[in-house]
Amino acid sequence: MTITALTETEISALLSEVPGWALRDDGKAITRTLKFADFNAAFGFMTRVALFADKHDHHPEWFNVYNRVEMTLTTHDADGLSARDAALARAIEGFL
Ligand code: H2B
Fold it and tell me: What 8-state DSSP symbol labels residue 95?
């Protein structure tokens, strides 16, 4: 299924709404790295994100070492950012 990519204006609006996130150099993804108290806290957060992601069929690319979680949001079906990434970023902010 093809999903419409966000326009540059929409991406700018998203970045000001979720200021912890940065636009990747190629403009096709947003990234954020978080540090938690320990692995338990990091994995608890990841579990909440995972349940939301699967419910909405939109999944983060991520990497975890102990208390660090690196996340990249992009929409493969749009070859760039879409409203699904915006919704996932907002949801993630809500879990912090
Ligand atoms: N997650 C992300 N980040 N991008 C997608 O394009 C995507 C996804 N597509 N999760 C979904 C699953 C698709 O592969 C399934 C078949 O709906």
Answer: T
Does ligand 1 lie within 6 Å of residue 62's CB atom?
no
Q: Report the candidate in 31, 66, 74 with the shortest Cα–Cα distance to residue 46.
A: 66
Give the residue whose CA is nearest to atom 16 of ligand 1.
57
The 10s digit of each residue's pLDDT in 26-85 is 999 999 999 999 999 999 999 999 999 999 999 999 999 999 999 999 999 999 999 999
Q: Specify the residue with its C-alpha closest to ligand 1, atom 17.
A: 57
Give Dmax over CA atoms of the chain in angstroms: 39
Q: Report the nearest atom of ligand 1 relative to the CA of 61.
A: 3
Cα(60)–Cα(73) distance, rounded to whole angstroms? 5
